[in-house]
């Protein structure tokens, strides 16, 4: 037996081949006293590895227990295990067994306990398992089993414990489960089960003590019959799509200790009947769509009903009103989380007397008032978070008495005053402190980090002064430090010590002093985990330390606005992950090191306002490694030479500023290759020659300055130069243009030649457009309609430049040879009209069972309404024609997004995809908010997004869904494309504009990811387990394209964020389309409050709001503690 296992413990020394005749003396072996044969093998928790696939079970015919749980065994489970006919307990849990579950296990008819929990088993669950008629405990959870054909399963009348959690089960509950009348424990969590929770679950399984079907896709209301589960202690239905109201009858389950309903789609109020649950210890209603106030009935001191409650989660709902003072009667509360709501008013005085509370989370609300001295009564308090409210006043000294405090967060409030000197002194476990964005002043408490446990310390955005606490240098566990935007005057050496875990430090916008070159290099070079180093806007001097070259993970390096001298060390070129380098506003000298061309991830390079000399290195343009560079500012230096033409190869530039130098020569003719350039400044140099006319094609260029040079020749008049200000060209002696401040250009025949050229180009473009912009004629073949008249009805747009006869003739009466594709609603034909226009004809098929009255006034009115819809981003409907067999709808059709992808065409670039998202948003918003009555599309998918020759998106088929179902005037019929239908329609719920918003979110994500986002959305609906890594935006974006850079980075992340918000499972949490359009059309540059490398997809998905400021559209990326 020993040869099949590998042991790493010493207790198995008795196992030896020379001791085979004395198995009963082996450790972990038990023998029957009467027969001296082995009856039990218990090798659980033995640090054992290997396989049992070749294990010979024959000598162990009398074995009743085989337990090898909690080891690292692998390989398949051998079929020979089925020979252990007397086995009562079989436990193989917490190993790495693979393959399918052997059907021979079904022979173990004496088995009462079977656990295969947490292995790598796969395949279906064999029906032979139901032969185990004596089994009481069956646990197959945390494997990879898929759905079985349950029809072959026998009843298992003695089964009381069943777990199939965390498998790959799909479809609905099966009757086999619902007939296990003796079940007390049922766990089907973390699967993919769908449909409503079946009523027999509540009526048949009345002995249930624990019910866990969380993390599935169950939909529909929660039945009031849940009250029949009178013995239920634990109820876990979280992360499904349950809707409707929470039934009041839940309050009759008097044995309940745990209720977890979080992340569903409930609406309405919190049932007051919950206050009757005397044994309730945990109530989790996080993020389920509640939109009422918090009922005071949660506590009834007269009946002392719910006083055992220990955990109360009501966060991330839409609760309003004030916090009821009755919550203070819940004396057993250890966790109270009301964050992420719209709760207002002061924090009730009764809250502060909850001496057992360990975590108080009230952030992201509208709370006002102060924090009273009674906070000192919370002697068990470990985590206190009230960030992002409107609290004011001072923090009183009683906070310093909280001995168990670990986290204290009050950022983004209106607090003022000083922080008590003893704060932190009596809190040895304090590891998280955030006082950011308030109006605190004075010095920081000297004992704040006296126990050196501090990990996150952020006080940015206040008016703190003086020195830093001395203990900060010795806080070896520090990970994140933000002291920026204060008035600290300490020496820079006191900010750095031994911090092996430090990831982020920002000291900018202060008055720190000191010479950084001799005083901090040793400490700085040891910060090997550092990703952000921001020392900008201080009074630092000295040279840039060479030790920076050791910081291989550095993402941001900012020394801007100091008094640094010396040259830029070439060692900076070794920081291969550097995204932003800002050394502006210093006194640096020497050449720009060519090693900067090695920074393959560099996005922002700002060296302005120094004393740099020499040429602009060619390495900054001729190396593909700088392909992501978006922002380059070399202005206000002493650079000379010509503008290297290699810079024109950095086509992702959005800002190029080389003004106020001594550059000479001509402006490169290829500058127009910088297609994404938005700001260009070459003023205050010695440039000569003319302004390249090709620059007029730079459609994103909105700011440019050529003034104070030696330029000559005419100013281009087309494109971006058409409305240019004169200030952009002044003080160039030879330049001319139509400005009174400049000399006028001499008239030549070239002007007429130019005009002729423009006419010719316009003619060519118009002719080419004919082949990109065509016509769709949607033709519905009506079966079962019997009319005597040859023409039933016609509605046609009066300005249409063609007739239906032209369409019929071009398609040879819709001959199959013109069919170019078949979709879900019919066939698409291609035709060429006599005018030269390419025509696509869509023929929509009906079954005989559909009774469509094409002559009805209702149908004609529907078409007339759609003909009136005129919008840039909506395909134009020109009319319909109906006869005995045909109903025709004529609209313009263009290039399909999917059509191009399916044909293997080059993937659309990021600007085009963003343009599609914005245009599609405008189209849906127009239908929802500007049409009377509002129009719900009901079938938004990527297949219905068409593009014109300029890649302007057009939403098509916006009326077809309604026309195909003319009797569905109440908009309750479920239509749409699979994968784009809102989850609430699983129960054929009433269709609202929120359904279109969900579909828009899916399309947006599909455009950004390059594939349907079903896997992403599914992963976000499940909890992040320890063996699943966090996803970052760059992990999920379309890998066929180079990663976005510059402004495009934040624009793409913004689009992903909007897509996630629109594709939320809870319909009330989806933003309206007018808001989406407002955000996407703000016309301002998006910026991230956090470095892109630190933002996860889950952070974006959990955002509560997106705030657009006057100049910058920014995401609020603050997590509970992400300050």
TrEMBL record:
SMART domains: LRR_SD22, LRR_TYP. The chain crosses the membrane at residues 759-783. It is found in: Membrane. ATP binds at residue 843. Pfam families: LRR_1, LRR_14, Pkinase. Keywords: ATP-binding, Glycoprotein, Kinase, Leucine-rich repeat, Membrane, Nucleotide-binding, Phosphoprotein, Receptor, Repeat, Serine/threonine-protein kinase, Signal, Transferase, Transmembrane, Transmembrane helix. SUPFAM superfamilies: L domain-like (SSF52058), Protein kinase-like (PK-like) (SSF56112), RNI-like (SSF52047). This is non-specific serine/threonine protein kinase. The lineage of its organism: Eukaryota, Viridiplantae, Streptophyta, Embryophyta, Tracheophyta.
